[in-house]
Amino acid sequence: MPTNENQQHSTELVRGFKPYEEQKGEEYMNDAMRAHFTKILNQWKQELMQEVDRTVDHMKDEAANFPDPADRASQEEEFSLELRARDRERKLIKKIDKTLQLIEDKDYGWCESCGIEIGIRRLEARPTADMCVDCKSLAEIKEKQIGK
C-alpha cells in the first residue's frame, strides 16, 4: 500500500509516467500536452479507485466480532484510519474529475489567480494544481496570517 507521502501528488513514483518532452517552439498546452495530462490523471484516478475497492474487500474479510474489547477497539481504530484515508482519496478523485473537465474545456494549465502558465514540470509534480508557484506561495502566506 502506498504511503500518504507517495499519494500526495508524487506522480513519478506512483504512476511511473514518462515526463513530457517539449519541442522547440511548441505551443503551451497543445493537444499533445493535454493528452499527456489526461493520461496521468486517469491513471491516478484508476489507482485511487482500486485502493477504495481493496479497502472494502479488506474490511469485509477482516471484520470480526472479537470478544476482547481491546481487540475490537484495535480493529475499529484500524478501520477508522482506513476510512479517513479513503475519504481524502474520494475528495482527490473529485478534484481529478474537475481537472479532467478543465482539460476537456481547454482551460487547463493556467493559473486561476493571475492567468500565467503554471508550467509543465509543476503540473507533472502536482497534476491538479490550479495556481502558479508564486500565487500559491502568496495564498499560503495569507492563509497562515489569517489563521493566526
Could you name the key traits of this structure?
148 residues; mainly alpha; Four Helix Bundle (Hemerythrin (Met), subunit A); 6 helices; 0% strand; disordered N terminus
Task: Please give the radius of gyration in angstroms.
Answer: 19 Å
Share of residues in helices? 55-70%
Flag low-confidence runs.
1-14
Overall pLDDT metric: 86
Question: Any idea of the CATH class?
Answer: Mainly Alpha
CATH topology: Four Helix Bundle (Hemerythrin (Met), subunit A)
- CATH architecture term: Up-down Bundle
Whole-number total of structural domains: 1
Order of helices and strands: HHHHHH
Shape: elongated
How many β-strands, per DSSP? 0
Walk me through what this model shows.
The chain is 66% helix and 0% strand. The protein has one domain (4-109): DksA, coiled-coil domain (Four Helix Bundle (Hemerythrin (Met), subunit A), Up-down Bundle). The protein has 148 residues and is mostly helical. The radius of gyration is 19 Å and the shape is elongated. The relative contact order is 0.14. It has helices at residues 4-7, 11-15, 31-62, 69-104, 120-125, 133-147. The two termini are 36 Å apart.
